[in-house]
Structures are given as structure tokens and as C-alpha cells.
Amino acid sequence: MKLIYAGKAKSLYELDEERALMEFRDDLTAGDGAKKARKAGKGALNAEISATFMELLREKGIPTHFLDYEAPNKHVVKRVKIVPIEVIVRNIATGSLVRRYPFKEGTEFSPPIVEFCLKSDEYHDPMVNEDIALALGVVSSREELAKMREIALKVNEVLREFLLEKGIILVDFKLEFGHDSEGNLVVADEISPDTCRFWDAKTKEIMDKDRFRRDLGDVLKYYEEVKRRISQN
Ligand code: TMP
Ligand code: ASP
Fold first, then answer.
1. Count of alpha carbons within 13 Å of 169, Cβ hemisphere only?
2. The pLDDT value given to residue 32
3. Is the pLDDT of residue 233 over 90?
């Protein structure tokens, strides 16, 4: 199969004109690739978790690139042109937000905060405003950014409610978007413990990639627990 693109944790292979196969690898990185590890089984866990979330979004009428889950570690996806903007939604202050601004760790936001960041390891994913995104040519209009914001907030509502029923707090997450062959804006990439922050609703234990970023240990044990909880009815 022809490799289209290899990122830090996933590889994309061509299936045909319209579809690609996205492989979730066992690689883990943090700090824009500065810290690296490989954990056997991580790719399969993220593929399964992300498939559950993508199917949930589909049920709720939110367009995504997801077509099918091919166990253990692949998704069949629509080929899209990725918008090089990361859209971050935050319900609770933590991570880079409390390092960059005088927010107190744990502050709850209502309404949530949406941030647009340029997808660039070289520049460390800097936050961009509408003018910068337009001037860089990474989006074609202000409406496109508004649409990304609107979909991201809808995704937040859907995931937040679903996860809370499973005893998990959705602290924040990152989304990527793409345009399909008809020009529709769709949610792309993955939604997993690598790209979200999850806290146990009771104990507030960290159940996501912060375990790796902060050397807290038991990374896969917690990914496994996220998978177990979200696959229960
Ligand atoms: P941050 O607090 O480090 O800015 O991260 C916010 C959220 O975005 C968190 O859920 C992790 C996720 N994220 C990614 O998925 N990829 C990235 O490159 C970064 C910086 C954050
Ligand atoms: N962009 C970071 C990396 O993979 C990921 C992160 O810290 O979330 O290096």
C-alpha cells in the first residue's frame, strides 16, 4: 500500500481516490516530538477509543472523515485536505493555559474556551487569531473559522455528556478538520487519550497522555480503563 503521510503517531495509506487507511501506531510523543516512546498496544487502544467517539459524532449528525474501524489499529477514512489549524476546546483550566495566562489550575469555564493554533512543531503550535490565520492562508475565510468553532463546541457538548455518564470528566481536547472532495468541512484525525484530557469524575485521577508527558506511569493502564468505560452501555 502506498504511504501518503507518516505523522508522529499515525500513518496514512492510500486505498483509492476517495478513501485512505489510517494506522494508529504505538508511538507516543510529547513536547512537539522532543520526548518519544513506544508502548505496545497503544495504537490499538487509541484506534478503538477514537472509533467509538467518531461513531457517536456520526450518530449525532456531526460530519467526520471516519468510515469504518478495522480492528485492531486502523480506521478507513475519507481522504480530506487537512486544515493546518488545531482547534482546542477547554472546559477546565490546566496544561499550557495555566502556563501562559494567569488562570488558576482547575477553574471551570462556562462557556468553554476555544483556541485556534497553527499546526507546526517548528513554531510549537502557536495560537493564531482570525487575521493571522487568514494572512497565513491556512483558512480561506472568517466563516471557515466560525464553522470550526461551532462544530468544535458541538463535539464538546456531545463528548462531555457521554463521558460524564461513564464517570469521566472531559477537561479539554484538540480537534483537526479537513475538507472532503465535495468541499465539506469535516472532523478529521483522532479523538483519543493522546488528544484529550480525561479525569476520573470521582478521584480526579489523570487518564490521558498527561501520564506520559508528566511521567506519572501506568499510561496504558489508564487508556485501557477509558476504553473499558466507554464501551459499556
Ligand atoms: P495544552 O494544554 O498542552 O495546550 O493542550 C490542550 C489539549 O490539546 C490537550 O487535551 C492536549 C491536546 N493537544 C494535542 O492533542 N496535541 C498537541 O500538539 C497539543 C499541544 C495539545
Ligand atoms: N504535539 C505534541 C507532540 O506530539 C503532543 C502533545 O504534547 O500533546 O510532540
1. 15
2. 83
3. no
- 52-85 pLDDT, tens digit per residue, is 999 999 999 999 999 999 999 999 999 999 999 9
**Three-state SS at 60:** coil
Distance CA 21, CA 19 (A): 7
Pick the ligand that lies closest to the CA of residue 34. Answer: 2
Secondary structure class of 46 (helix, strand, coil): helix
- Whose grid coordinates read 479525569? 199
What DSSP designation does 64 have?
B
- Sign of torsion over alpha carbons 170, 119, 221, 228: positive
> Using CA atoms, how far apart are residues 221 and 233, in angstroms rounded to an integer?
21
Edge-to-edge strands of the sheet including 74-78?
Answer: 3-6, 10-14, 19-24, 74-78, 66-70
Nearest to 230 by CA among 158, 154, 153, 168: 168
Residues 123-175: tens digit of each pLDDT:
999 999 999 999 999 999 999 999 999 999 999 999 999 999 999 999 999 99
State whether the beta carbon of 190 lies less than 6 angstroms from ligand 1.
no
pLDDT of residue 68: 98
User: What backbone phi and psi angles, to 5 degrees, belong to 93?
Assistant: -75, 125
Please give the full DSSP string across 104-144, using - where no structure is assigned.
PTT-EEEEEEEEEEE--TTTT--B--HHHHHHHTSSS-HHH
DSSP class of residue 103?
A: P
- Cα of 107 vs centre of ligand 1, distance in Å, is 17
Atom of ligand 1 nearest to the CA of 99: 2
Q: Among the atoms of ligand 1, which is closest to the Cα of residue 197?
A: 10
Whole-model pTM: value is 0.97
